[in-house]
Amino acid sequence: MINEFARVMRQGGYFLFTTYADTHLSYSSGYRQADGTVTSISKGSLVGVGQFSFVSRSDIDTLFHADKWLLLSAVRKELVDMLSAEPNIYAEWQVVAQKI
Prior knowledge:
- 19% of the residues lie in helices and 36% in strands.
- The chain has 3 helices and 5 strands, in the order H-E-H-E-E-H-E-E.
- It has helices at residues 2-8, 25-29, 57-63; strands at 14-20, 31-32, 38-39, 69-81, 88-99.
- A 3-stranded antiparallel β-sheet has the order 1-5-4, with helices on one face. A two-stranded antiparallel sheet has the order 2-3.
- A hairpin with a 5-residue loop joins strand 2 (31-32) and strand 3.
- The longest helix is centred in the N-terminal third of the chain and has 7 residues, at 2-8.
């Protein structure tokens, strides 16, 4: 998907990307498939809603190849529900990249 955006965007264009981070509670409570997606999630905000991909910091570097993108920002946001019996972590990446 990221490669297709790079193909169709004009040079200098900005790409804003938000995705679930691998520190999200649902990531660690599910079953990781061979393709990297997670299913059978048993904890967190994504219980019972399907199959998801979760992204690490190194995944961002892999997705945004330095020969196609200038990575301007990679912010990981985490929200923690402190009233849960166990901390319920919601985590996402907010990435800003520019096509070079």
